Amino acid sequence: MQISKHVFRALALGMVSMGLVVGAAFPLFVMGFGVPKATALAPTFIAATLISGFVVGWLNFALASGIVRPRLKKLATGMQHVRGAMQQATFSGDWSSCDPAMCRLDERDEDELGAVAHSYNALLYALHEAHRIEAQIRDFTKTLSSKLDLHELGDQALSMLQANARAQGGAIVLERQGDWTVLASRGLNHPEKILESQAFIANQDQTIQNRITLPPGMMVDAVLTQFVPADVLLTPIKNHGLVLGWVILASAQAFAEDVPRVLPLMMQGLGLALNNALLHDDLQRVAALDPLTGIYNRRFGFKRFEEELNRAERNRSSLAILLLDLDHFKRINDTYGHLSGDKVLIQSANICREILREGDVLLRYGGEEFVIVLPGASLHDAKEVAERIRFAISQSIVRVGDQALNVTSSIGIAATSGQGLITTAEDLVAQADQRLYMAKATGRNKVVAEGLPDPHASLAAH
Predict the structure, then answer these.
(1) Matching CATH topology for 150-286 and 298-459?
(2) Secondary structure element (H or E) that encloses residue 157, with its range
(3) DSSP per position, 18-86
């Protein structure tokens, strides 16, 4: 208010001074209209004109002050309120008192003060929008920072991004070890087709956001469902300058003006969270895998085994396991060395992987032994799988220098009843181990599923 006081003081001084000047010049002015000089220059007449000039100047000031001062005070009061609310909200986090609907000024006037009020309101709305975007980015980053599971992070991030952008479809595409994969998708019929689209291929090596505005009625090659996209945004997810992936959002109408500007800001938090999740996922994968064969190690594999066993118990479904042992493996290590033995283990694990289904569990039990968990498989199903594995291993060749090693395996099988009877993982392994012992004791290169082995059936090629 100090500036306003100076302005009105100068205004009062200027108007009163102008009134006195006019009052002083008035006698000379009236002489031009025939008023006698003696009358015009009489002290009483001059005093009257000066007093009149002073009064008129002061009345003009009072009138201007009465019109302008309340409007300026209202503007100053509004600004002070916003300043106080901002100071309080900075520490409390409650910005409701800064709502433009509560603090805006009437801007019906079309003069300069109306323009000032309009500018004030525009500043208030801009401040509110800046705070809204800041809160949106903060909440987005805070929510994602607690997510370490990669797929959970992708689903949560995409859900929030779609809600903020009001997009009907979208996907998060991630690069891992040189390959692009779809981490999460919503509103897409065939999200994997994004990786084949010309728009994505053309932009995947870029580091800046790209926007594609589609003509009415044109479908994108990702085959978006439920709507025809009119606007598509491709925004890179970066961390320390490296592109980790892309966020692709599609809308049936043009995106709001602020969406392309806000998305890159949100990518900063997503990039950090995604990098942390990738590191966590890599650590989990390293901790779960056998370093030589790349399959589950015993500790993590048994956890998966118990999970599948519990699921089979709940669903009253069957489950079978194979306990596989490579025949005469110690002789291979003693004769050809441990590096050759490692090659045999790696090739045997790869053969098992190729034959097994996606949901089956393969783990290295110890040394040259492997456990294979077959969810939903009966004893008969497990025997067929075991025969395929046994035959494939027996037909494989491992080359060590000029030598060609031929390896065989023995397999014991155990299975649950599928009737909901409780069976522990240890019981199943113990039963499979007994049958593995029977296979080895009766000649090796055999599969034993129950009772005594049939020596003729196990030697036939499957």
Answers:
(1) no
(2) helix 150-165
(3) HHHHHHHHHHHHHHTTT--HHHHT-HHHHHHHHHHHHHHHHHHHHHHHHHHHHHHHHHHHHHHHHHHHH
Task: In whole angstroms, give the CA distance from residue 256 to residue 260.
Answer: 8
CATH placement of domain 298-459: 3.30.70.270
CA distance 58 to 143: 64
Enclosing H/E stretch for 365? strand 361-366
Determine how many CB atoms are found less than 10 A away from the CB of residue 228.
14
Residues 241 and 247: their CA atoms lie apart, in Å, by 16
Six-digit token string for 234: 């491709």
Q: Which of 317, 323, 322, 329 is nearest to 408 (CA)?
A: 329
Model confidence pLDDT, tens digit, residues 280-313: 877 777 788 899 999 999 999 999 999 899 989 8
Question: Helix H segments across 373-414?
Answer: 379-395
Question: What is the rounded distance in angstroms from the CA atom of residue 239 to the CA atom of residue 63?
Answer: 63
Q: Which helix (H) or strand (E) holds 307?
A: helix 298-315
**E strand intervals along 158-303:** 169-176, 179-186, 210-213, 231-239, 242-251
Domain spanning 150-286: CATH 1.10.3720.10? no
Provide the whole-model pTM.
Answer: 0.55
What does the alpha-carbon distance between residue 57 and residue 64 come to, in Å, rounded to a whole number?
Answer: 11
306 three-class SS: helix
Where in the chain are the domains?
2-132, 150-286, 298-459
pLDDT tens per residue, range 160-183:
999 888 998 889 998 877 788 899
370 forms beta bridges with 324, 364
Task: Count Cβ atoms below 10 Å from residue 139 Cβ, excluding itself.
Answer: 13
Dihedral pair phi/psi, residue 9, rounded to 5°: -65, -45
Residues 6+ apart with CB under 8 A from 249: 161, 162, 165, 167, 169, 170, 232, 233, 235, 255, 263
The strand pair at 369-375 and 409-415 is best described as unpaired
